[in-house]
Structure prediction request, 138 residues.
Amino acid sequence: QDFLLILETHAADRAGLVTDKSPYWICAYAINQHDVHIANDPMGTDFMRALQACEGTISIIDPAGKIFERIWCGFELYQSLIEHSKPGFLHDIYTVDAQGRAVGLIDGFASSDLLSIGPRGNRRPHAPAKYERERPFP
Prediction:
């Protein structure tokens, strides 16, 4: 339930970048986590092939932050943020707050962080809106 809420919120926050046709590749569903064949080279895994093909990643954090205790998750984060980062590559972090709302830390600005300015309604980033949206993040 929280997982779907987070993905729906992420898609709304990334409106314009994420559409109803945008795929989410979900590692835990795509790879048997108890039977990962890494062999001698983790760079040849399905995760690495998916990472090379994507435009960004999202980390979904449980309230206890267990992701940071798992070595494979640390490897995935490192690869996503350091090794395979490229211009325009985005990484967002989401969780559910104590009130059951999905809240995310966005790389850059969410669509709701943009304000219409001027007679043409040009949309510009608005840092106070970003702060208010991200403030409930635990």
Observations:
- The chain is about 35% helix and 15% strand.
- Residues 71-83 form the longest helix (13 residues).
- The CA atoms of residues 75 and 102 lie 25 Å apart.
- Strands lie at 56-60, 90-96, 102-105, 114-117, 122-125.
